[in-house]
Design brief:
five-stranded mixed beta sheet; 22% strand; binds flavin-adenine dinucleotide; alpha/beta; 11 helices; 2 domains
């Protein structure tokens, strides 16, 4: 029988999306031996696996004041989207020129720390071994077969709270879950001032004819080129933490995207010579499991602007919940949800209960469904990831589990490194 491969590391980051990239970079910059495991052949999460180019959560909608610095700000700077030292970013949701550029930048930043970081792409975390109050091993599956990872500290950035779930720490799913969306791009679309209105009518007809079970918008965005639209319109209800349901959703999403493209090509002037550039490659997952951690960030915390001594990140996006039915002309019924002022996310909202060595960052951190509909955006997820990576490295230095760390000290360390929460000073 083949001997199973084993890898030892200080910090294991599972999932190399928005939160995971920042967590891995932060842990390795803070001198922890770090391993990043990502199921796709590249990192970037929603930005590269789904194709979404928005850096939401970087600045306050009302004032444009920068609320998140650190790694996401550095990435924007490296892509030439913001000037060093900028204190205001307008519009508040900068668009990346290319998701491929982001993919390469993430590779370069992840591998810039040589010896202290290893990256395993095409590798899925698939199980956890728990001994008492510690995660003693995480199993991953890749071309080497099943590999056992022994890490002192584990950071779950899978978006779905996979590690937390398998470690049997408290997690929750709020039903009905928000729907999934496959994004796609259509090229060689000729200018037509009525394009959006006509595309909307065309989807209404497809829906009435029984060809399209559900859609929203449609949002047609000239994000990457003057003649190419990037489409937000597919809406598929389901539970992406269930393997079979996720496959069903991928199939439905692809079918719906193609139905939309065919309807527009046939009916909407401007689409005659268009072509389907690409979709996904993964369907976008808005919501599945969330950690029920040491503090569950609530909508009340956000709306009242509650201050936490152990704040490690700042959120500022509106509460954006998508319903499981067609909404014509917008993503939500009646437009956007509550727009908060910048608010604190405490360290304890990243710390699991019942195990000593698990942090959870990104959209599966500890928050109510309503609160998470604001904290889930790209830059806020990265800010939580940076906090988790920094904390995990501090725990290694202090030879204790992340649960025993003083969140106030994590905040101070982040601030010292030019990251962490917005301060009013
Ligand atoms: C359709 C859609 C539209 C959105 N629109 C916007 C928007 O306009 N602006 C905005 O800012 N935010 C938007 N969001 C929300 C936001 O982008 C995500 O919530 C954000 O990506 C959260 O970051 P994350 O790191 O938690 O998750 P992700 O970025 O999804 O990263 C999770 C990573 O973990 C990997 N992974 C998962 N399971 C495993 C495993 N078992 N083993 C190894 N790797 C694993 C995945 O491949 C992925 O790379 C949208 C989300 C969706 C789904």
């Amino acid at each position: 029988m083949k001997e199973q491969k084993k890898i030892k590391t200080d910090v294991l980051v599972c999932g190399g999306g928005c939160a995971g990239i920042a967590a891995a970079i932060a842990a390795s910059r803070n001198n922890a031996r770090t391993l990043l495991v990502e199921r796709a052949p590249f990192s970037g999460g929603i930005i590269t696996t789904v194709g979404l180019p928005f850096f939401d959560g970087i600045s306050d909608k009302k004032t444009g004041r920068v609320v998140v610095r650190g790694i996401p700000f550095e990435m924007l700077m490296k892509m030439g989207r913001v000037k060093p030292g900028a204190t205001v970013i307008k519009p508040h949701n900068p668009t990346l020129r290319s998701t491929e550029e982001f993919k390469v930048l993430a590779d370069r930043m992840l591998t810039a720390h040589g010896e202290s970081i290893r990256v395993l792409y095409n590798s899925s975390a698939c199980d956890v071994r728990r001994e008492g109050d510690r995660i003693s091993a995480v199993m991953i599956a890749n071309k080497d077969g099943l590999v056992e990872i022994n890490a002192s500290q584990v950071i779950d950035c899978t978006g779905d709270g996979d590690i937390a779930h398998w470690a049997e720490v408290p997690v929750e799913k709020t039903m009905p879950l928000m729907p999934m969306t496959l994004h796609f791009r259509v090229g060689n679309v000729k200018p037509n001032p009525e394009l959006r209105a006509q595309a909307r009518e065309s989807l209404k007809r497809a829906s009435e004819a029984g060809k399209l079970p559900m859609f929203y918008g449609p949002g047609l965005i000239y994000a990457f080129a003057k003649d190419e639209i990037y489409v937000h319109a597919v809406r598929v209800p389901g539970d992406a933490s269930d393997a079979e349901d996720l496959s069903r959703a991928e199939i439905q999403g692809r079918s719906d995207a193609w139905t939309m493209f065919e309807a527009w090509k046939k009916e909407v002037p401007g689409f005659e010579d268009s072509y389907f550039v690409s979709s996904g490659p993964y369907i976008g997952i808005r919501e599945t499991r969330r950690l029920v951690g040491q503090h569950v960030l609530s909508a009340k915390d956000i709306k009242l602007g509650r201050r936490f001594d152990d704040a490690v990140a700042t959120g500022c996006w509106y509460m954006d919940r998508h319903p499981n039915h067609t909404t014509i002309g917008s993503a939500n019924d009646g437009g956007g949800g509550y727009q908060p002022d910048p608010y604190d996310i405490p360290y304890r909202a990243l710390v699991a209960k019942k195990v000593d060595n698990l942090l959870v960052a990104g959209r599966c951190h500890s928050a109510s469904a309503e609160a998470a509909s604001s904290t889930r955006v790209t830059v806020t997820a990265m800010a939580m990831g940076q906090a988790a990576g920094t904390a995990a490295a501090m725990a290694i230095k202090e030879k204790k589990g992340v649960v025993m760390l003083d969140g106030v000290k994590v905040r101070e360390e982040l601030t010292r490194q030019g990251a962490g929460p917005l301060t009013d000073g």
